[in-house]
Design brief:
Elements: H1 22-29, E1 38-47, E2 52-60, E3 70-75, H2 81-85, H3 89-100, E4 111-117, E5 122-128, E6 136-137, H4 146-163, H5 183-198, H6 212-228, E7 232-234, E8 243-245, E9 251-253, E10 260-262, H7 264-275, H8 278-297, H9 306-326, H10 334-350, H11 353-357
Antiparallel strand pairs: 1-2, 2-3, 3-5, 4-5, 6-8, 7-10, 8-9
Helix pairs in contact: 4-7, 4-8, 6-9, 7-8, 7-9, 9-10
Length: about 350
């Protein structure tokens, strides 16, 4: 189990949104704010995904200790809680907000509590409502500008640079990217590839790429390489839908469920390809990559040369390609899945990714 001190009254954690009551929220918030009592919690909005997010309006008894009137309660409240929980995503996000975020100057939503348990698997975090700060949330159907992507790459460079060489897999640390705990989802997706390539979404990418066995081999090869070359913490899932822009132009990221030990090129490719419209990506990706490497070097990191970096970047495209081919419509809307998969499909051709991987 992980989280803050004095958590006994907050456990067991609720497994459905019905359990997110005023009494439970009081116990959970007291892990960080011991004097707080929640008198009422009204559910305003529910968003489903790999985790369920519930926006609640809170009324406090007396001193609110600086807590807001609204916050998002995010956890495994859906029917697939056990499946996704066994992938480690709920525990990983709790680890990020309890152990990692406080140690570094990363740009992320503020959290008010973060709690996890093993049996039954669950992890719940309470997060600020970013809309109260008038941020702009990105979406795949509204591509970002090259300038916005450059700002997001600066944020990722800070994550990578500040954690470079500081983490090794082990007790209390994030797992390796694409760790053994994710075998369940990879085995499932590998088995489903023939049917997925026959489904409508697949035809948003060139038919020349519809080869299940070649894709399986490429993903396995990429997985081995990114683990062998692991150097720093990576967000793991910084697609456009997890990005937001502050009024001052700063770009931050939400959904830290896949925080892991990996390598820079995984995050950089995943963000650039998912975030830019095809003409912009073709016109600007090399310059954006160069700008990222310059920013990474400012943290004292020994960055690769332009040629070596480009080869790593090309290989990483395969991850986004398989993820957005296979991503269920219960995790992202169909238009988002199709738009993002199309971008990775064209990038697979532009980057000649199979040749870069050697399959």
């Amino acid at each position: 189990m992980s989280g803050s001190a004095d958590q006994a009254d907050a456990r067991p954690l609720p497994l459905t949104t019905d359990g997110v009551t005023a009494a439970w929220l009081s116990a959970a918030l007291r892990t960080r704010y011991p004097r707080v009592t929640v008198m009422a919690a009204d559910r305003l909005e529910v968003i489903e995904g790999t985790a369920t997010k519930v926006l609640v309006a809170l009324r406090y008894d007396g001193d609110a200790d600086g807590l807001p009137e609204r916050m998002w309660i995010k956890g495994g409240f859906g029917d697939y809680r056990e499946f996704t929980g066994n992938l480690g995503v709920y525990h990983a996000e709790v680890l990020f907000f309890t152990d990692i975020a406080p140690a570094y100057g990363l740009h992320h939503p503020r959290s008010y509590f973060a709690l996890a348990q093993d049996e039954p698997t669950q992890g719940i975090v309470a997060l600020e409502d970013l809309r109260a700060r008038d941020v702009t949330f990105a979406r795949a159907t509204r591509p970002m500008t090259p300038g916005q992507v450059a700002a997001g790459l600066d944020t990722l460079a800070r994550l990578h640079g500040e954690t470079w060489g500081r983490y090794q897999p082990g007790a209390g640390a994030p797992s390796l990217l694409m760790a053994r705990s994710s075998d369940l989802i990879w085995d499932t997706w590998f088995a489903e590839l023939p049917q997925l390539f026959a489904a409508p979404r697949a035809f948003a990418a060139p038919v020349a790429l519809h080869d299940p066995e070649r894709l399986r081999t490429a993903v396995r090869t990429y997985r081995a390489a990114v683990q062998r070359e692991a150097k720093c913490l990576v967000h793991g899932d910084p697609h456009i839908g997890n990005a937001y822009t502050e009024r001052d132009g700063t770009v931050g990221f939400v959904d830290w469920q896949v925080i892991a030990i990996g390598n820079w090129y995984h995050d950089v490719n995943y963000f650039i390809v998912s975030a830019l419209d095809l003409p912009d990506r073709r016109a600007h990706e090399r310059d954006l990559l160069g700008g990222y490497l310059k920013q990474l070097a400012s943290y004292g990191v020994p960055v690769p040369g332009a040629g070596e970096a480009w080869e790593s970047y090309r290989r990483a495209t395969v991850y986004g390609y398989i993820c957005w081919l296979c991503n269920p419509d219960i995790w992202q809307p169909p238009d988002v899945n199709a738009a993002t998969f199309a971008r990775f499909g064209m990038a697979m051709l532009d980057h000649d990714t199979y040749a870069a991987i050697g399959v």
